[in-house]
Backbone:
């Protein structure tokens, strides 16, 4: 967001597997959002420039590194579901002196556990995907990442989570509930038929992210499974089918 006109494109740094039509739509969307933002009272380009590219905090015994894209770049994709590499992430955790990476940017929710060897506790990567946009097929709510010292209990709105007992923390992907109908009406008012956002995200806003499931979002193997503590199904939607869908 360097100015009212975004000559350098949307800044998403899309990888090669993303089609040109997606890139073009994203450029058009960000151009419009940028013009609207800089026309709003109190919006400050100087203030934006002071914001850090990452943040670090300690929760319990865990050091959490919060990034937008990945540790290398603000718009990096190395923590995405498509490009995740455990050896690379293991090295980054070591270099950052971190136990957990919390990221976003790629709009696809996923999480991985990282085996750091017998002498180190498991690490984790949680990418929330999107807070204000549906993240799973057939589901109309967003997702955020929660890190808590209450490692023994899954929060009520957890989609999936993991107890990192050696670090004294629990990490969960949490539902962000909102009125999907009201939000769709507002969103469609901003982005009418034929607009770049409606073409790119219209189906996702009304039906969720096609073919993306909880089971695909939390993929982990081997010894790491011993640490997984799947969240209970949400109240009001019980039954064996719902419990099975939330069991990892």
Residues:
């Amino acid at each position: 967001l360097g100015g009212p006109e975004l000559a350098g494109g949307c800044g998403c740094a899309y990888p090669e597997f993303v089609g040109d039509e997606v890139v073009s739509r994203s450029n058009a969307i960000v151009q419009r959002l940028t013009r609207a933002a800089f026309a709003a009272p109190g919006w400050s380009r100087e203030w934006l420039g002071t914001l850090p590219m990452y943040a670090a905090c300690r929760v319990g015994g865990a050091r959490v590194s919060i990034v937008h894209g990945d540790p290398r770049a603000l718009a990096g994709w190395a923590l995405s579901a498509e490009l995740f590499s455990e050896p690379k992430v293991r090295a980054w955790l070591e270099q950052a002196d971190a136990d957990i990476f919390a990221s976003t940017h790629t709009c696809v929710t996923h999480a991985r556990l990282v085996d750091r060897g017998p002498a180190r506790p498991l690490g984790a990567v949680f990418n929330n995907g999107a807070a204000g946009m549906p993240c799973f097929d057939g589901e109309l709510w967003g997702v955020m990442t929660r890190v808590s010292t209450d490692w023994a209990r899954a929060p009520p709105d957890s989609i999936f989570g993991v107890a990192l007992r050696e670090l004294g923390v629990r990490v969960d992907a949490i539902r962000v509930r909102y009125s999907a109908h009201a939000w769709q009406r507002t969103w469609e008012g901003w982005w009418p038929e034929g607009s770049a956002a409606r073409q790119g995200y219209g189906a996702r806003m009304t039906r969720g992210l096609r073919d993306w499931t909880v089971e695909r979002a939390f993929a982990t193997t081997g010894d790491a499974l011993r640490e997984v503590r799947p969240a209970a199904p949400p109240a009001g939607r019980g039954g064996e089918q719902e419990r099975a869908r939330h069991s990892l």
